[in-house]
Amino acid sequence: MNPKENAIKWQKKWERAGIFKAKDNIKKNKFYCLEMFPYPSGYLHMGHVRNYSIGDAFARYKRMCGFNVLYPMGYDSFGLPAENAAIKEKADPKKFTEKNIKGIKEQQKLLGWSYDWDREVQTYSPEYYKWNQWIFLKFFKKGLAYKKPGLINWCSKCATVLANEQVVKGACWRCKTEVELKHLDQWYINIKKYAEELLNGIDKLKYWPENVKTMQRNWIGKSHGTTIDFEIVDENGKRTGEKISTFTTRPDTLFGVTYLVFSVEHPMVAKLIKGTKFEKEVKKFVKETIKKSIIERTAEGKEKNGCFLGKYFINPANGEKCPLWVADYALMEYGTGAVMAVPTHDQRDFEFARKYDLPMRIVISAPGEPLDPKKMKKAYEGNGMMVNSGQFDRMNNGKAIEEITKWLIKQKSGKRTVNYKLRDWLISRQRYWGTPIPVVYCDKCGIVAEKEENLPIKLPTDVKFTGKGNPVTTSAKFVNCKCPKCQGKARRETDTMDTFVDSSWYFLRYCSPKDNKKPFNKTKVNYWLPVDQYIGGVEHAVGHLLYARFFTKALRDLGLLDFDEPFTKLLTQGMVTKDGAKMSKSIGNIVDPMQMIDKYGPDTVRVFILFAALPEKELEWNDQGVAGISRFLFRTYNLVDEPRKQKKETGNKEKTLIGKLHRTIQQVTESLDNLELNRAINALMELVSAVNRYREEEVHLNTYKEILRVLTILLSPFAPHIAEEMWHKQKQKGFVSIAKWPAYDKGKIDVKAEACENLIGSVMADIAKVKELAKLDKIKEVKLFVASEWKFKFAKNMKKLLAKTRDVGKIMKEFMQSDLKSYGQEIKKMIPRLIKDPTRLTETILDQKTELKILKAAKEQIESEFSCKLFFEKAEATEEVKAKQAMPGKPALIIN
Question: Is pLDDT above 80 for 722?
Fold first, then answer.
């Protein structure tokens, strides 16, 4: 059998039969399995292969369990790469995208993933982005979409706005010109309105990774505090009529404020310095600061930098005039973008004040430790009694937080505030390859929303890609339009939408992808959603995953949905590495999936990538491991050849093997339910080895055939093409891909027989490991020491006690009151180790006599495997120190 040719054969048969097409059968239990859809770069990398192989194995399993499975695929196909290709290579973005989709889709089909291709969506198509525009209009009418001035990265040479990822070390990625910060009118979506619900909803996400939930909580960043207003004055104390507000969680330190800092992005900075002697120096500082990352600006231990703005403010607590500065450690993303500075009680402020010789005042005393600003080596950030704080002196600072807030409210200088780090979502992009924003600008009517019947507003094709400015603006036919309201002359919006809009609701479109009247059918969406299992990278935790949660809630409030959360379970798969590093062209450690498929076939690639590590863990690519999986699959496939030696009667061997089969069904089923796919494959490998050993002797044909039939079903989610060929060779009906998943019978599992097999397997594995560690080419003899008889009694009692308690004292007390108390010193050492790792005790505890009998029966097998002599002893009958390490199910050994 040629694995690749076999795969292509069965892929064609599946497609002709349409076995993976989902039907909207509301009477049937549904299961919606989905991976984050890809940007069509034109080729698959191993990260894709891992992501989609996990999803496919799970979807196939659920389908075989009788669920109505929705498992679709689409392409997140708007974005910068296509536009860059248009600029650099004069390529048509549409043709570039279509070519890439064709390439990646061919590779996806070659790997045999069981998608319902009839439901495919492509976000660049007008049939899809029409509904982006429709949703935008609904948000606009509700006040969720709005326009306001926003700070952007501007390249003067390219005459274009740059995304943050296009700014490299403060310069334009394309022409290397220094980037400027400019204020430009931009479109936003009011995600902040849903901040509280998004935050509270995280607690309901029971089946999401904790790290993702923590990242979202931190990103939303709720904090309770006080907003304080400060009047701005000039150097003579004359009021300018301007006020600046700051948010703080520490109003108790207000009397200690001696200066205030703006972030470099704050719009007040340019206003305050305009036409002053400070303008040149401050502008230079702002330019230098925006080149730094947020981490560089705020990291602990990093030197803090700033510039005086030539203006002052009045502290409402004591009437003092204090200087206004701009500083790198202040961020526009938090609070108001202005920070009141208390050098004695905040370490960043302390470092800044020391550097620029700014005043310091103690306002919270340290218990039993007098503080002197001149002698302080660091800020005091603890609690204490208020000092130098007027009427609030001698008050506990915790109480002062509330009392000073009340005082500020009474003075009309502040208010209680709930603050969120979460900012409204900037969706404007001055780029071509995205969804046009459906509004027009009319001199008479102002901003006017397009009429729904005019959607989609299609991207113009008569544009010029010069690398300068937004290509959309070069199409006069697109820009010049009629006002939908007054029919007068108007100008169309030339910004396009952030591509995260496309991916914030695509999972809904799969439910009715060809609907041309609505973005999705409500009845179908309410049947299929939420997505039962979502799979993708952790890098999307505070981008796509947060936006998708927001969209779901906003669409619910528009009456389009009946649920709150889009994804019930989330798996974030680990990356694929080679030679200890992430696969990368620059490093030269890329493994091309297509080359592997040509050599081994898709099933080998799929099984290796599922077997090498748990899905959420990092996976190290290993060429030898891939070859090993190929050999395993061929050994499995060869089981379809009818055994030569046959017998008519069944006996203990058949009973044991049937027990092994049912244990494997249990292990594979439970492992799949927990998405522990490597453990499921490991259980299959053990079963295949057992069946191969069985067929070396006389086999009962009907028993063998039944085991092979079930084994083929269990293999199908992981290696579907080989499993189909095996199914066909067995003359079974239909496709194994949709065969009924087997149930296990606990009554048929021979626990004692399993324990015997596990004992032999454990001993052989230990011998092989010691041989490898000792770097021995050959072994002359192996001495095995079976655990002392009292340890078997101890192990059985320990298992019972561990089921009740993990308390060392209680367990020790039980043993000291038993007939094992004479072994107290040894038991005392073993109990903590077994509490920490109960798996040190085998599932089934035999007895010393039985273990010896099993090992003696396997003597010939073990000697043949290692070409050595094997000797046995009871641990209590020898003076060998090593013998004391023997435990039930784990004999100690010495190799010579």
Answer: yes
